[in-house]
C-alpha cells in the first residue's frame, strides 16, 4: 500500500499547492485587471409597461481579457466572491458607472440596478459605498436599486437588515434577484422590506407559444402582488412571453426582446431613439 499512499499524499500536497498558487494569482489578476481598465459595464434597459418606455437599466459587469476575450460574468463573479474580492470589484464597478452616467441624459428617478453580493450586503461598509455613489451621481438623481439574492436573506446577519433599513430610508430600493431559484425564502420575504421581485428567466422561458400552463410562474406573480411588490420579469425573449406577463400585471420587462445589455456609448443613442420626443 505504501507506494499508493505516497503517491496519493504527494498528489494531494501538489493539488493544495497548486490551488494556493492559483488563488493568490487570481486575486492578483483581478487587481491588475482593474488597474488596466479591463472591466466594463454593460447596461440592459428595463421596459416599464405602465409608461410604455425604458424606465431604467441593470448594470452588468464585463471582463474583456486581452488575448482571452470576454470571461463569463457568472464565472468571474463567483471566483471574486470566493477570493473575497467582490467588494473591491463592486466598488470599482460603481466608479465606472459614475463615469458613464456623466454622459447620460436620463430623467430623475431613472432606475440603475446594481447587483450586490451577499458578503457585501452584510458588510459594515455597504452604506457608505452606496452613499458615496449617490453623491457622485447626484447630478442625474437616479433611483438606485440594489439587486440581492435569496442567499443574502438566508445568511441574514442583522447587519444586512440594518444596511437595507438605512439605505431604504434614503430612497434606495431593493430587488430580490433570481427569485424562485434559491432556497425557499418565503418567511424571509415577509421579514425583509423589499420593493421588487425579479423573476428568474427560467420561469419566463417556460412560457411557450403552445400556451402550456406555467403554475410556478403564476404563483410567483400572485405572491408578489399579495406582498405589494412590483415584478420585474427577466429573460423575456418573445412577444408571447411579453403578452403573457403584461396581461398578468407584471410591471417591468427585461430581456432580449426589448434590448440586450450594451456599453454606455451604445446605450446613450439607444436611449435617445427609445424615449418620447
Ligand atoms: P443576473 O443578475 O440574473 O443578470 C441577468 C442575466 O441575464 C445577464 O447575464 C443578462 O445578460 C442575461 N439576460 C438578459 N436578458 C436575457 C434574455 O432575454 N435571454 C437570456 N438568455 N439572457 C438574458 P450576464 O450579464 O451574463 O450576467 C450573469 C450573472 O452574473 C448575473 O445574473 C449576475 O448574477 C452576475 N453579475 C453580472 N454582473 C455583476 C456585478 O456587477 N456584480 C455581481 N455581484 N454580479 C454580477
Ligand atoms: Ca441581477
Ligand atoms: Ca437575475
Ligand atoms: Ca442570474
Which structural traits does this protein have?
277 residues, alpha/beta, globular, binds calcium ion, 10 strands, disordered N terminus, binds ligand C2E, eight-stranded mixed β-barrel
| Percent of sequence in beta strands | 15-25%
- Major sheet attributes: 8 strands, mixed, barrel
Rg over CA atoms, rounded to whole Å, is 21 Å
Mean residue pLDDT = 89
User: Topology as H/E string?
Assistant: HEEEHHEHHEHHEHEHHEHEEH
Number of helices: 12
- The oligomeric state is single chain
Distance between the termini: 80 Å
What ligand species are in this complex? ligand C2E, calcium ion
| Strand segment tally | 10
Low-confidence stretches: 1-11
Helix content estimate: 40-55%
Shape: globular
What does the secondary structure layout of this molecule look like, with pairings?
Elements: H1 2-35, E1 39-48, E2 53-65, E3 69-71, H2 73-82, H3 86-101, E4 111-115, H4 118-121, H5 126-136, E5 143-149, H6 150-154, H7 159-169, E6 173-179, H8 186-191, E7 196-199, H9 201-204, H10 215-226, E8 230-233, H11 239-247, E9 252-253, E10 262-263, H12 264-273
Parallel strand pairs: 2-4, 4-5, 5-6, 6-7, 7-8, 8-9
Antiparallel strand pairs: 1-2, 1-9, 1-10, 2-3
Helix pairs in contact: 5-7
The chain binds ligand C2E and calcium ion (3 copies).
Ligand C2E is lined by residues 44, 60-61, 73-74, 77, 90, 93, 115, 117, 147, 177-178, 201, 234-237, 254-256, 261.
Amino acid at each position: 500500500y505504501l507506494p499508493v499512499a505516497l503517491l496519493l499524499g504527494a498528489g494531494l500536497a501538489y493539488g493544495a499547492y497548486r490551488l494556493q498558487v492559483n488563488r493568490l494569482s487570481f486575486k492578483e489578476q483581478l487587481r491588475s485587471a482593474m488597474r488596466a481598465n479591463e472591466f466594463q459595464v454593460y447596461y440592459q434597459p428595463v421596459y416599464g409597461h405602465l409608461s410604455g418606455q425604458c424606465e431604467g437599466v441593470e448594470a452588468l459587469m464585463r471582463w474583456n481579457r486581452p488575448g482571452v476575450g470576454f470571461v463569463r460574468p457568472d464565472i468571474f463573479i463567483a471566483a471574486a466572491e470566493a477570493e473575497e474580492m467582490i467588494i473591491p470589484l463592486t466598488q470599482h464597478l460603481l466608479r465606472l458607472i459614475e463615469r458613464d452616467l456623466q454622459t447620460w441624459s436620463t430623467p430623475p428617478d431613472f432606475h440603475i440596478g446594481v447587483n450586490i453580493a451577499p458578503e457585501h450586503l452584510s458588510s459594515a461598509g455597504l452604506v457608505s459605498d452606496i452613499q458615496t455613489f449617490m453623491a457622485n451621481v447626484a447630478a442625474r438623481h437616479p433611483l438606485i436599486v440594489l439587486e440581492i439574492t435569496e442567499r443574502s436573506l438566508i445568511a441574514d446577519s442583522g447587519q444586512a437588515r440594518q444596511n437595507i433599513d438605512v439605505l431604504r430610508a434614503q430612497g434606495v430600493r431593493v430587488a430580490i434577484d433570481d427569485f424562485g431559484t434559491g432556497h425557499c425564502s418565503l418567511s424571509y420575504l415577509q421579514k425583509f422590506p423589499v420593493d421588487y421581485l425579479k423573476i428568474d428567466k427560467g420561469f419566463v422561458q417556460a412560457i411557450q407559444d403552445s400556451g402550456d400552463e406555467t403554475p410556478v410562474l403564476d404563483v410567483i406573480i400572485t405572491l408578489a402582488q399579495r406582498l405589494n411588490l412590483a415584478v420585474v420579469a427577466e429573460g423575456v425573449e418573445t412577444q408571447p412571453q411579453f403578452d403573457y406577463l403584461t396581461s398578468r400585471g407584471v410591471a417591468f420587462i427585461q430581456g432580449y426582446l426589448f434590448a440586450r445589455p450594451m456599453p454606455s456609448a451604445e446605450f446613450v443613442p439607444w436611449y435617445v431613439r427609445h424615449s418620447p420626443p
